[in-house]
Amino acid sequence: MSFTYAPATLSGKVRLRISDTDEAHPIFDDDEIAVFLEVEGEDWRRASALALETIAGNEAMVQKVITYRELQTDGAKLGAELRAQAKDLRAQADSAAVTANANAVLTFVPATYGAASEGDEYSNPPHFITRYT
């Protein structure tokens, strides 16, 4: 099982976000993190969300309600919290995508009808028929 933690990389950001930074006790190996990134289009936020959803769905990682003396764990609540974090990450990724698209540059090329060349798509303007009834 290979484990690499470099926070400046995409896989490192995923590991940091899902708290998988302990080399002695990794949650996922490098190949699994790489698959999360591949499936989610190399977006570390979405890959982190997928990893959290995977953890939340794994019964071995998220135990059921266990009570031992005064200590109690509640796997259902933990799973719900992990899913809520995943939802927030997906919303952040959507917001980042909208911001990136808002900064995109559109270039408009004016169409000149009646151009000198005959037979091209711009030489004759479209004709609209309006009917009134």
What features would you describe in this structure?
The protein is mainly alpha-helical. The chain has a domain at 10-90. Helices cover 45% and strands 5% of the residues. The chain has helices at residues 10-17, 30-39, 44-57, 75-102; strands at residues 66-68, 71-73. Strands 1-2 form a two-stranded antiparallel ribbon. Helix 1 (10-17) crosses helix 3 and helix 2 packs across helix 3. The longest helix has 28 residues, at 75-102. The radius of gyration is 26 Å and the shape is elongated.
Termini Cα gap: 74 Å
Q: Which strand order does the major sheet show? A: 1-2
Element-level helix/strand string = HHHEEH
| Class by alpha and beta content | mainly alpha
Principal-axis shape: elongated
C-alpha-based Rg, rounded? 26 Å
Low-confidence runs of at least 5 consecutive residues: none
| Largest sheet, strands/sense/barrel | 2 strands, antiparallel
**Mean pLDDT across residues:** 80
Number of strand segments: 2
* Binned strand content: under 5%
DSSP helix count? 4
Q: Please estimate the helix content.
A: 40-55%
